[in-house]
Amino acid sequence: MNEFIGPLELGPIAHGGHVVARHEGRVVFVRGGLPGETAIVELTDTRHDRYWNGRVRRVLEASPDRVEPELAPAAYAGTDFAFATLAAQRRLKAQVVTEQLARLGGVDAEVRVEAVSGDREGWGWRTRMRYLHEDGRVGLRGYHTDELVEPPAGTGFLLADPRGPAPHDLARHAARAGREITVTVADSGVTVTSDGRVLSGEPVVTQQVRGMDFRVRADGFWQVHPGAAEALTDAVLNALRVREGERVLDLYCGVGLFAGALARAGARVTGMEANQTAVRLARANVPQARFLASRLERGLTRLGTRADAVVLDPPRSGAGKRVIDAVTGLGARAIVYVACDPAALGRDVAGLRARGYELTGVRAFDIFPMTHHVETVVLLTRGQG
């Protein structure tokens, strides 16, 4: 497109990692900038009447939070905020969660984004890397493109967990690999897969959390930050404070991460998950709990009529009205909602509040440093009215 506008004054952060600017009355969502900066912006999408998209091409007045890159741009592939200090990134993420809870959820909350252990100052934390493979070359997919971005020689991609193989080391799998190659770094070792085939390593790996072993498929869901599973489990336990013998539902339970901790705390746990392989592993990981294989929307009637507490850990799209209505009908004293998308969290919090629950606790975790993503754990308790 190569159309440039500016100088533009960059305004507040928006959901999705953009800052908001205005040009001749139109909103421009800008990547690569920080609030308060002045910049020349290259337009990347002008298809919409009400707003455009762009990216910073030249900073005229920089924020004190800006960090100048030391390496070739390709080393930072997969990042949104590599040009900002970690402290600034966390403040921006806290602002996004606060704004989404207020605008969509109707609640004012004080949010602070916490660091978790094991991220090496924001780098080297991504234990699962999904690479593109073309003609023997291996790299990352470009932002919103199908372009292959190759890593710089000697540095690789800075987000990748260094325990995994570098992209150029994956070339030996070229004859057997499809267009995508996934590297999974687990506590038990490293697995490389492509199109459902294991190229090296084990198809099922082991992750250790709070003294428990969890078996999970190498290509199945597990938190990608090495410190995330323990941080989120601690947050769920500290929020719910389950009592011996309480009936607790772990919904969208995966391989039983939260269920294991809740069962150890004395709860009678029922988990539900759509992925049947994950449920089989959950039953082996946490034999003292009960697990049901079903899409939650279809399996709501199998959850019973009462629960003392509920853990909701839905996908990025959120839980939605049907699930919220069913869960709030169980009479639980408390619901903990684990969210990877602040907008979906805001919408679902509004639904929970409409059914008699109030937000009584918020914690947010920086388990995706250098990106705009943030994980939030909120506690909602039933009102007395």
TrEMBL record:
<feature type="binding site">
    <location>
        <position position="273"/>
    </location>
    <ligand>
        <name>S-adenosyl-L-methionine</name>
    </ligand>
</feature>
<feature type="domain" description="TRAM">
    <location>
        <begin position="15"/>
        <end position="47"/>
    </location>
</feature>
<dbReference type="InterPro" id="IPR012340">
    <property type="entry name" value="NA-bd_OB-fold"/>
</dbReference>
<dbReference type="Pfam" id="PF01938">
    <property type="entry name" value="TRAM"/>
</dbReference>
<keyword id="KW-0808">Transferase</keyword>
<dbReference type="InterPro" id="IPR010280">
    <property type="entry name" value="U5_MeTrfase_fam"/>
</dbReference>
<keyword id="KW-0949">S-adenosyl-L-methionine</keyword>
<feature type="binding site">
    <location>
        <position position="313"/>
    </location>
    <ligand>
        <name>S-adenosyl-L-methionine</name>
    </ligand>
</feature>
<dbReference type="InterPro" id="IPR030391">
    <property type="entry name" value="MeTrfase_TrmA_CS"/>
</dbReference>
<dbReference type="GO" id="GO:0070475">
    <property type="term" value="P:rRNA base methylation"/>
</dbReference>
<feature type="active site" description="Nucleophile">
    <location>
        <position position="340"/>
    </location>
</feature>
<protein>
    <submittedName>
        <fullName>RNA methyltransferase trmA family signature 2</fullName>
        <ecNumber>2.1.1.-</ecNumber>
    </submittedName>
</protein>
<dbReference type="Pfam" id="PF05958">
    <property type="entry name" value="tRNA_U5-meth_tr"/>
</dbReference>
<comment type="similarity">
    <text>Belongs to the class I-like SAM-binding methyltransferase superfamily. RNA M5U methyltransferase family.</text>
</comment>
<feature type="binding site">
    <location>
        <position position="223"/>
    </location>
    <ligand>
        <name>S-adenosyl-L-methionine</name>
    </ligand>
</feature>
<dbReference type="GO" id="GO:0070041">
    <property type="term" value="F:rRNA (uridine-C5-)-methyltransferase activity"/>
</dbReference>
<dbReference type="InterPro" id="IPR029063">
    <property type="entry name" value="SAM-dependent_MTases_sf"/>
</dbReference>
<dbReference type="InterPro" id="IPR002792">
    <property type="entry name" value="TRAM_dom"/>
</dbReference>
<feature type="binding site">
    <location>
        <position position="252"/>
    </location>
    <ligand>
        <name>S-adenosyl-L-methionine</name>
    </ligand>
</feature>
<keyword id="KW-0489">Methyltransferase</keyword>
